[in-house]
Specification:
Layout lengths: L5 E5 L4 H12 L6 E6 L7 E4 L2 E7 L10 E4 L3 H13 L3 E4 L15 H4 L9 E3 L3 H16 L2 E10 L6 H16 L17 E2 L12 H14 L5 E8 L6 E9 L5 H9 L4 E3 L11 H4 L5 E8 L8 E8 L3 H15 L2
Parallel strand pairs: 1-2, 1-5, 2-4, 5-6, 6-7, 8-10, 12-13
Antiparallel strand pairs: 3-4, 8-11, 9-10, 11-14, 13-14
Length: 337
């Protein structure tokens, strides 16, 4: 592998694309050359990277010549069309869409959990769903010592999960609401200001679960390599600009205490405990935004389970960082170490 690889970012002008650039720079990833790729309407724009002006190029089938690493964040359709093209040209693709996550031949990786799977790739490595990453980083160290047999998860998902346009819509709709002006939603299906609603993905008429919920269930089982885990998920969009939150209750095979849980999580990579009962201070989106770690708090025994096998927690994580760009760059670091 070239010690100074050529890195292409597909979808560079989106919210995650911007975080790819910032994360590569912050982590001092050895980029020999950066190729900024986007749709035709963004071609010609310029971006700053390490003191250089990078011109955005239109994504085409000839975009990947001499590219070593291709970081994709442009949606499943683009990934399905162009990721195989990039692989054929010799690049390793790390894809942030759902296009390849459940392909049995594609590793689905959270480095703190299953970095060993990176070496199994055949050109494409999948970045998991942001809600799955947020939940599984703190759950994995518990699961490894005391298998989690059941998980009930409720998400509070920020506008950032739907991209820069949704973040702008939240800002504009809130401004309109406060000024008494009508605002018609353009990106999301419902009024966003001072409102929350079912996650904006399709509902499976047979199960009643939306696509986001189904992704979390299926991806958890693949990453943990455990099809026996019973999982129920409710995903909700909330009027927060950035950083997702989750309320979770999990049941282990053996008894587990809140003190034991805190000890495990205090030594877990990628986790920061924020759990101050005296000040009523726990994980919040405003604190998680811009942070690499998943914040974990509200750690307590589940009083509905008298067996002592269950714990309830609340977590927050930056969807654009650990939920997307940071996780992908961590994969790249391991893949090309």
């Amino acid at each position: 592998m070239n010690s100074n690889p050529v890195v292409a970012i597909v979808g560079v002008t989106g919210a995650v694309g911007a975080e790819f650039i910032a994360t590569l720079d912050k982590r001092k990833f050895p980029v020999g050359k950066l190729k900024a790729l986007a749709s035709a309407r963004s071609a010609g724009k310029t971006l700053d990277f390490r003191g250089q002006k990078i011109i955005v190029e239109e994504l085409t089938e000839s975009s990947f010549e001499d590219v070593d690493i291709a970081l994709f964040s442009a949606g499943g359709g683009v990934a399905r069309k162009f990721a195989p093209v990039a692989v054929k040209a010799g690049a390793v693709v790390i894809d942030n869409s759902s296009a390849f996550r459940m392909d049995p031949g594609v590793p689905l990786v959270i480095p703190e959990i299953n970095a060993r799977r990176i070496g199994d790739h055949k050109g494409i490595i999948a970045n998991p769903n942001c809600s799955a990453i947020t939940a599984l980083v703190p759950l994995w160290p518990i699961h490894t010592g005391n298998r989690i047999k059941r998980l009930i998860l409720s998400t509070y998902q920020a506008a950032s999960g739907a991209g820069a346009a949704a973040m702008q819509e939240l800002t504009e709709s809130t401004r309109a609401y406060l000024s008494g002006t009508d605002y018609a939603p353009k990106v999301l299906p419902h009024s966003y200001a001072f409102n929350l609603f079912n996650h904006d993905t399709a509902i499976d008429p047979a199960t009643g679960y939306n696509d986001e919920e189904t992704k979390v269930i299926r991806e958890t089982k693949k990453i943990f390599e455990d099809d026996r885990i019973a999982i129920s998920v409710t995903c909700v969009r909330v009027p927060v600009l950035r950083a997702h939150c989750q309320a979770m209750t999990f049941e282990c095979e053996k008894r587990i205490s809140e003190d034991e849980t805190r000890v495990i999580l205090s030594n877990a990579p990628g986790v920061k405990i924020v759990d101050d009962r005296s000040r009523n201070y726990f994980p919040m989106p405003i604190d998680a935004s811009g942070q690499d770690d998943v914040l974990v708090g509200r750690i307590r025994n589940d009083l509905s389970d008298p067996s002592g096998h269950s714990i309830a927690m609340f977590v927050a994580a930056d969807q654009l960082l650990k939920g997307a760009a940071l996780n992908a760059v961590q994969i790249a670091e391991r893949a090309f170490a």
